[in-house]
């Protein structure tokens, strides 16, 4: 079945009072695992995300992994969208539509507010002209290499009134907010500020996005959706699942040289992780 625009999946989730999960794709096996897990969960839809870092891993070539993920998505019985994640390079953003993406997240979050606003406004104007839905970030979600502070330090969380002005001034379609989560967490120990999420939902007229969701426990994720989060980004949890399964397989068979058995085990473990998480965020 054809891919579905990200805008459509997010709008349907918002109207139903639930969230749509967006999982990061690094390899073909990630895409296969995400769609298999979504089908097993009977999810209303799922987003395949390919980040600028993943593109860099593939030699700076976006189309091979994007086309592969799109073909996997088209073979799934669940609605699937393709999203370009954490783009800082406008040159890469300008390849998104031709590479099959219906949306992108433009990341100027590490810049001072005025520079972030100007860069994001320009990105949104270009994206809308190309028919793309654009997400941006305000505040600082921790865990990135250039992080100025932890996710729980004073002053890094998103201010509702500033967020409302930022959305109005940039014209973005969704906003990733800093509410206590952090990128690249391997333990689910983040503490979210649900009262802040509610204030942001009241102040901001576009869907709210939670980054760093791998570090958030099930109950906190459910409460975040109830408070107003509509898109939930998950990446590290899949890598933890995959790597753990591969280590287990190679530990049991140290003489193994054919990658298919251990890669298949990693893919199956990622698929189960996806199935379980989708039951939490879109159930």
Features of this protein?
283 residues; alpha/beta; TIM Barrel; eight-stranded parallel barrel; 11 helices; 8 strands; 48% helix; globular; Aldolase_TIM; aldehyde-lyase activity
Secondary structure: helix percent: 40-55%
As a percent range, the share of strand residues is 15-25%
Query: Looking at this structure, what is the CATH superfamily?
Result: Aldolase class I
Shape type: globular
**Could you tell me how far the N terminus lies from the C terminus, measured between alpha carbons in angstroms?**
23 Å
State the CATH architecture.
Answer: Alpha-Beta Barrel
Q: In total, how many beta strands? A: 8
Low-confidence stretches: 148-155
Structural class designation: alpha/beta
| Main sheet makeup | 8 strands, parallel, barrel
Please write the string of helix (H) and strand (E) elements. Answer: HEHEHHEHEHEHEHEHEHH
> Do you know the CATH topology?
TIM Barrel
Question: How are the strands ordered across the major sheet?
Answer: 1-2-3-4-5-6-7-8
Q: Determine the mean pLDDT.
A: 90
* Total individual domains: 1
CATH class: Alpha Beta
GO molecular function, one term: aldehyde-lyase activity
Cofactor: Zn(2+)
Protein name: Ketose-bisphosphate aldolase
Active site: 85
């Amino acid at each position: 079945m054809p891919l579905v625009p990200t805008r459509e999946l997010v709008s349907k989730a918002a109207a139903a009072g639930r969230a749509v999960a967006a999982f990061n794709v690094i390899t073909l096996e990630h895409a296969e695992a995400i769609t298999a897990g979504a089908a097993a969960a009977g999810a209303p839809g799922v987003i395949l995300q390919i980040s600028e870092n993943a593109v860099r891993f593939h030699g700076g070539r976006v189309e091979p992994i994007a086309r592969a993920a799109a073909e996997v998505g088209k073979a799934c019985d669940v609605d699937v969208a393709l999203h370009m994640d954490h783009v800082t390079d406008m040159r890469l953003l300008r390849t998104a539509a031709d590479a099959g993406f219906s949306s992108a997240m433009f990341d100027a979050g590490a810049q001072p507010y005025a520079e972030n606003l100007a860069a994001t406004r320009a990105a949104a104007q270009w994206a809308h002209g190309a028919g793309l839905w654009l997400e941006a970030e305000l505040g600082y979600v921790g865990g990135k290499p250039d992080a100025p502070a932890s996710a729980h330090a004073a002053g890094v969380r998103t201010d509702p009134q500033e967020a409302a002005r930022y959305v109005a001034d940039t014209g973005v379609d969704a906003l990733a907010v800093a509410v206590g989560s952090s990128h690249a967490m391997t333990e689910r120990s983040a503490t979210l500020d649900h009262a802040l999420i509610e204030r942001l939902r009241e102040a901001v007229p576009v869907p709210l996005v939670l980054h760093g969701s791998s570090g958030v426990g099930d109950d906190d994720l459910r409460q975040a959706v109830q408070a107003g989060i509509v898109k939930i980004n998950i990446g590290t949890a899949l890598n933890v699942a995959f790597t753990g399964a591969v280590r287990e397989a190679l530990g049991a068979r140290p003489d193994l040289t054919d990658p298919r058995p251990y890669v298949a085990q990693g893919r199956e473990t990622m698929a189960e992780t996806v199935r379980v998480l989708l039951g939490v965020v879109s159930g």
